[in-house]
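[retry 2/3] Gliding motility-associated ABC transporter permease subunit GldF: previous attempt timed out, resubmitting with same input.
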Amino acid sequence: MLAIFKKEINQFFSSITGYVAIILFLLANGLLLFVFPDTSLLDAGYANLDPLFELAPMIYLLLIPAITMRSFADEYKTGTMELLSTKPLTWWQIVMGKFWASLLIVLISLLPTFVYYFAIQQLSATPVRLDTGGITGSYIGLFLLGAIFTAIGCWASSLSNNAVVAFLVAVFTCFIFYNGFDALSKLTVFTGGADYYLQMAGIKFHYTSISRGVIDSRDVVYFISVTGFILYLSKISLQRKIWQ
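[retry 2/3] Gliding motility-associated ABC transporter permease subunit GldF: success.
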């Protein structure tokens, strides 16, 4: 698994694609949070990072599928997946090696945003104490959200040897998991109890809960369970591809 992990990291940063993906993520965050007036932290009137954690999931919808779309698609396209399957590696090791490498890249893209915490403190008109607990919880939630999106991206890449198809499937699936259940719960047909359970089935419900600064074990279990289940689907997809 470690060999696959290193290979993925080296491959990602050996091309301009990796750097462009991270730079675009940071650039989009910077423009939205400090330049565009509708979402600017400077025009919010109070010192917090709430806009970051509201906007980052939407940016992740495009960034993470761009990172993961070649994970397995390129292996199919070049024929190296068959070679990997003959190595002394289990299917889980192959999947997890790809997953952890992609998740590390997502984490690397997230780390520079810590600068915003200090920037808000320095730019405040009066000395303020930011809600460190809430911000920490929001960052944990964003990391867990990134883990689910990364798992979805790996699964989508395992379905096709076309990276563009993998990207589109990942974007659509991430959007449905994040916003779909919440939107369905607002339909009148589900009012009266079912709407709450529909919200609980979606990512947004649990992400919003953690973003308040309260780390509920139920939310953490949800993120870990869904990530594990999607990675299991990736393993099954790989096996079927090779057996065919």
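[retry 2/3] Gliding motility-associated ABC transporter permease subunit GldF: The longest helix spans residues 217-243.
[retry 2/3] clearing retry counter.
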